[in-house]
Design brief:
The protein is of the alpha/beta class. It has 9 helices and 8 strands. Its cofactor is Mn(2+); Zn(2+); Co(2+); Fe(2+).
């Protein structure tokens, strides 16, 4: 099994007036990567930030942090080249936002980024499946995308379990309402990339929360490898 436990704080939950230092703080607290939510006010009702801010962040934090871009946008094709130029490492787009996922996957690869493919709660995992062997990561949303602070949807876990059983080495990410109270369900289902917003960033001790999340996931991965 090639996948490992990785924790990515969702920086949209941080103090946006000092985003650069917040990113550095998260990395110093043991984050494996940073999850950046791009919303266009169209695909989802909220509006966040675009590639100019990503470029500034990359200059501010240096080359090391892995930027996982969660592109909640209506025309994901439009932003591939700008995000690559800005310093993004992974481009995670929504299958619901494109009519040609294959072509978009190819464009992202050719721009030098990794490929993530996301599904909303209302989208079946079978719609993602045909592309699973062409992507680096599948993102199963555990809330409706567009707003932070929503309640974790446990009924999304069968999607994660199914993906893990069908594609044993795929990176599987969960995003939405994930924290110490819900991590066990995610880990048992087979998720290995954990996006956590307020549970990490608003904590008095982000380092220990990140460590807890990683330990739970790592133990589940180890158990799965022993059970095989």
């Amino acid at each position: 099994m090639a996948y490992s436990a990785r924790i990515g704080p969702s920086i949209l939950s941080s103090d946006l007036s000092c985003l650069g230092s917040e990113c550095v703080r998260m990395m110093e607290c043991g984050a494996d990567y940073l999850h950046l939510d791009v919303m266009d006010g169209h695909f989802v009702p909220n509006l966040t930030f675009g590639h100019p801010m990503v470029e500034c962040l990359r200059k501010s934090v240096g080359r090391d942090p892995f930027f996982d871009m969660h592109m909640m946008v209506s025309r994901p094709e439009q932003w591939v080249k700008p995000m690559a130029a800005a310093g993004a490492n992974q481009y995670t787009f929504h299958i619901e936002a494109t009519t040609n996922p294959g072509n978009l996957i190819k464009e992202i690869r050719e721009s030098g980024m990794k490929v993530g493919l996301a599904i909303k709660p209302g989208t079946t995992v079978e719609e993602l499946a045909p592309w699973a062997n062409q992507i680096d990561m599948a993102l199963v949303m555990t809330v409706e995308p567009g707003f932070g602070g929503q309640k974790f949807m446990e009924d999304m876990m069968p999607k994660v379990s199914w993906l893990r059983s069908q594609f044993p080495s795929l990176d599987i990410e969960v995003d939405g309402g994930v924290g110490p109270d819900t991590i066990h369900k995610c880990a048992e289902a087979g998720a290995n990339m954990i996006v956590s917003g307020s549970a990490v960033i608003s904590s008095d001790d982000p380092r220990s929360v990140i460590a807890l999340l990683r330990t739970v996931v790592a133990e589940a991965i180890q158990k799965r490898s022993l059970d095989r």
